[in-house]
Write a structure and sequence with these properties.
ABC_transporter-like_CS, transport, Rossmann fold, 8-stranded mixed sheet, 24 helices, Glutathione ABC transporter ATP-binding protein
Length: 681
């Protein structure tokens, strides 16, 4: 009850009539293992036009809180025993299903974390975009189609009229997320709840989307609740931050205060776990050791105490949510000592790690790799050829990590799939340990795949929904006879789960019973089960919260040092790529734009596209972010069906000339070890 009083006092000071007010919300799930208390005593408010960010580790209750507001909890297992959710003066928890359906989509919209599970696979993108416009806005079919084309253009999808006729599986992960954002914006709602809205997006599109959402929020007075683990996004856009841990709100305050004057050890640890572009790279990422508690049986006293380096005897009693010196709220017995500077989260002694220059015979050699997809025309769609990958070449040495970055749709994932021989190249050569993979038979590839593994971008679609986590991880152990018996398999599965930050009892669960971040960790454990020498990491940590992300990156680096693993690390988070990679390849529209040593490419980028990528990346510091405008990339993405002549970046390049529109620049060594495909450099 105290939390309600504290929060209501804050509301009275800031706004007499919040758009949304959540009071003492409790959410529970009935499971075979007992009652899981997913949210306990949550109270907060959102004013019109305000951007509120909810951060915290996977499983902390962030997404469940959003689903509770939307009344989308599972009907038979989810329940709300206590609490109120008031929107525009109406208690949403007391509305009928029909009344709630009228509000969803029109007044409140939600952008879900996993677009592939939210989009209907048997309906075209156009049908799914126009449906809310027809139902809630009363538009005609022609009006709805025109608005759908406009929305796809707003979120950066090229050739939107043709894309309306396509299905979700024909879009990349980032483009599917953009479609979900377009659906969320369709009816100009009063409140948008965005659950990890930019997880699958590259930095340039992320900046465009968030700027669009921020401008709509300011112009139309739309309130935003952004659930995210990207603290750079929070620093750039959030007015207020809510930090959740183990089903509870542990800190709430203005964004500046949370980042610069946190009053809870968990918030302090989160902020220290984030890799940053504006600071030197350390030997290892700082992490919060341990795992979040089991929501079905939380520890007594402070939930964070088992992982807190500052716990004392009083932490065995449950802390209340109290007002701090900064005017915010903190659920910590020692918040006054933190305010006085007596408690400071200290970093472990870490020497600065410099770039490692490796020499020798490449483990993987890619030469002039090209992949074209033939697209057949439908009733209203034109046929043609998509040039997904064009003349890509690079080497990866044993024990090396090569970062591959670029916008969604640039061909990063296709390169990974070609290396894995999940797709056959149109042209080019792939050699692994001296063996030509392009001509390898199915039997040869079975032996090779023991040494080449992959961690996919979308954990939900890459895990078999009919198998338990234990069966998913144990299957390759059984097929390749890596363990002597069932007991050995179970022990190895438990060991792998612990390696990636999951409890051994997770082996009995199915993928749908896990959060997005937990599913991604299962995918990593499955790849490690084969004890490979090379792993393609396709957005391997994009779905993880920052503390677990740091643990996984440190794990990957530890395994690399111990086992000599090599990685192709495909990602859109430039700070993570900088930390883990030794060399970086930048791709755009199927072609390589720049290749260099990690420190060199971040310190002295040569290609205009690389410069735009780095300028668009958010830094987790409100002082830095509020003082600079994101440098948004200009121009439209060209169509893969009709690529531009000359340099593929010329339609969006700030320094393009007539020559750039006529000549395809070769990838040339501009400085020792630094290659760029630009005639202006």
């Amino acid at each position: 009850m105290e939390q309600r009083v504290e929060t209501k006092d804050r509301v009275g000071l800031e706004s007499a009539s919040p758009l949304l007010e959540v009071e003492d919300l409790h959410v529970q799930f009935l499971t075979s293992r007992g009652i899981v208390r997913a949210v306990e005593g949550l109270s907060f408010h959102v004013d019109p036009g305000e951007i509120v960010a909810i951060v915290g580790e996977s499983g902390s209750g962030k997404s469940v809180s959003a689903l509770s507001i939307m009344r989308l909890l599972p009907r038979h297992t989810g329940r709300i025993p206590k609490g109120r959710v008031t929107f525009n003066g109406r208690d949403l928890l007391k509305l009928s299903d029909e009344q709630m359906r009228e509000i969803r989509g029109r007044d409140i919209s939600m952008i879900f974390q996993e677009p592939m599970t939210s989009l209907n696979p048997i309906l075209t993108i156009g049908m799914q975009l126009t449906e809310p416009l027809l139902i809630h806005m009363g538009m005609t079919t022609e009006q709805a189609r025109a608005r759908a084309i406009e929305l796809l253009g707003l979120v950066g999808i090229p050739d939107p009229a043709r894309r309306l006729e396509q299905y979700p599986h024909q879009f990349s992960g980032g483009m599917r997320q953009r479609v979900m954002i377009a659906i969320g914006l369709a009816c100009n709602p009063k409140l948008i709840i965005a659950d990890e809205p930019t997880t699958a997006l590259d930095v340039t599109i992320q900046a465009q989307i968030l700027e669009l959402m921020k401008n709509l929020s300011r112009k139309l007075n739309i309130a935003l609740i952004v659930i995210t683990h990207n603290l750079g996004v929070v620093a750039r856009y959030a007015d207020r931050v809510i930090v959740m841990y183990s089903s509870q709100l542990v800190e709430e305050n203005d964004a500046d205060d949370v980042f610069h004057r946190p009053r809870h050890p968990y918030s302090m640890g989160l902020l220290r776990s984030v890799p940053r572009l504006d600071r030197p790279r350390g030997a290892k990422l700082e992490t919060i050791e341990g795992l979040p508690p089991n929501a079905a049986a939380p520890p007594p006293g402070c939930r964070f105490a088992p992982r807190c380096p500052y716990k004392i005897a009083i932490c065995e009693t449950e802390p209340r949510l109290l007002r701090t010196d900064t005017g915010g709220l903190s659920r910590c017995h020692r918040h006054e000592e933190i305010a006085e500077g007596k408690i400071v989260w200290t970093a472990a002694d870490q020497a600065l790690q410099t770039s490692i220059t490796k020499t020798g015979t490449p483990l993987l050699s890619v030469r002039h790799l090209t992949k074209h997809f033939e697209v057949r025309g439908g009733l209203r769609a034109a046929s043609g050829t998509v040039r997904a990958v064009q003349d890509v070449s690079f080497d990866i040495l044993p024990g090396e990590t090569l970062g591959l970055v670029g916008e969604s749709g640039c061909g990063k994932t296709t390169v990974g799939r070609l290396i894995l021989r999940l797709e056959d190249p149109t042209e080019g050569e792939l050699r692994f340990e001296g063996r030509d993979l392009t001509t390898a038979s199915a039997a040869d590839m079975k032996a090779v795949r023991r040494k080449i593994q992959v961690i996919f971008q979308d954990p939900y679609s890459s895990l078999n929904p009919r198998m338990t986590v234990g069966q998913i991880i144990g299957e390759p152990l059984h097929v390749y006879k890596l363990v002597p018996n069932r007991k050995g398999e179970n022990e190895r599965v438990a060991q792998l789960l612990e390696q990636v930050g999951l409890r051994p009892e997770m082996a009995a669960r199915y993928p749908h019973q896990l959060s997005g971040g937990q599913r991604q960790r299962v995918g990593i454990a499955r790849a490690l089960a084969m004890e490979p020498s090379f792993i393609v990491c396709d957005e391997a940590v994009s779905a993880l919260d920052v503390s677990i992300q740091g643990q996984i990156i440190n794990l990957l680096e530890d395994l690399q040092r111990r086992l000599g693993l090599a990685y192709l690390f495909i990602a859109h988070d430039l700070a993570v790529v900088r930390h883990i990679s030794m060399r970086v390849v930048v791709m755009y529209f199927g072609r390589v734009m720049e290749v260099a040593d990690r420190d060199e490419i971040y310190r002295n980028p040569l290609h205009p596209y690389t410069k735009v990528l780095l300028d668009a990346a958010p830094i987790p510091d409100p002082t830095v972010e509020k003082g600079r405008e994101p440098r948004l990339i200009k121009g439209e993405l060209p169509s893969h069906m009709s690529p531009p002549s000359g340099c593929v970046f010329n339609t969006r390049c700030p320094i393009a000339s007539d020559e750039c529109r006529q000549v395809i620049p070769p990838l040339e060594e501009k400085r020792p070890g630094h290659f760029a495909a630009c005639i202006k450099v």
